[in-house]
Design a protein that fits this description.
CATH topology of the largest domain: Jelly Rolls
Structural class: alpha/beta
Number of strands: 13
Number of domains: 3
Largest sheet: 5 strands, mixed
Shape: rod-shaped
Distance between the termini: 29 Å
Length: 221
């Protein structure tokens, strides 16, 4: 969020001209005319510009906040829907539409043919269908923003944006990023490493997914 600080308009150097005081009338009047031309008019324009810039920034922040609220609500529903999944057990008979997660890759699968089997759902497309959770999209219209795992961030900020990865991530945490104006933005490591390097990453591509695995963020395009 960028805030333009308004600057107060300086007062005239002399009081307003007083018709009853002929000795100072001319000097005061000339000073008042100079003040209107050199201080008042430019100052009013600057204050108007500052108000306009701040209003645009406030609109962008409000739009981002609304998008975040929608994304959080969607993610909450997804989490509620899949939180009940338990681990798949070889040889167990499962009813149609049962949901279990694979002990191999921890992803959730839905049973599409009732029955039992000894093949892990991740390798059994005949009986199990992957539940592909689409990450909720959050539009980022700010110079700095901190990501939360499980979301898809679309950077629409016109200037340079630094998107920080989540702090203290867990294994399997993922952040998806789409950039409309690539080559200027930054993916900040936020205390972790990216590809085992203690360096931030230039966002010089339009799309990537960062997944935290084996103690570092792994980036795939």
């Amino acid at each position: 969020m960028t805030i333009t600080v308004p600057v107060a308009i300086a007062d005239p150097a002399l009081p307003l001209a007083d018709p009853a005081d002929r000795a100072t009338f001319t000097t005061r009047k000339l000073e008042h005319l100079r003040w209107e031309r050199e201080d008042l008019a430019p100052g009013v324009l600057a204050l108007g510009d500052a108000s306009y810039d701040n209003a645009l920034d406030a609109q962008g922040s409000a739009t981002g906040a609304a998008a975040s609220a929608v994304a959080v609500a969607a993610n909450t529903l997804l989490a509620a829907g899949y939180a009940g999944a338990t681990v798949w057990v070889s040889g167990t008979t499962y009813a149609l539409y049962d949901v279990r997660f694979s002990p191999i890759n921890q992803r959730s699968y839905r049973r599409i043919i009732a029955g039992a089997g000894t093949t892990d759902p991740s390798a059994d497309a005949t009986n199990w269908a992957l539940i592909d959770i689409v990450r909720p999209i959050v539009q980022v219209n700010a110079s700095t923003y901190t990501a939360v795992a499980g979301f898809h961030y679309e950077i629409i900020y016109a200037g340079v944006c630094t998107l920080s990865l989540p702090a203290s991530p867990g294994s399997g945490n993922a952040v998806e990023v789409t950039v409309s104006n690539a080559y200027d933005n930054v993916l900040a490591r936020n205390g972790s490493t990216i590809e085992a390097l203690s360096e931030n990453m230039d966002l010089d591509v339009h799309h990537l997914v960062a997944t935290y695995s084996t103690s570092t963020w792994r980036v795939s395009l």
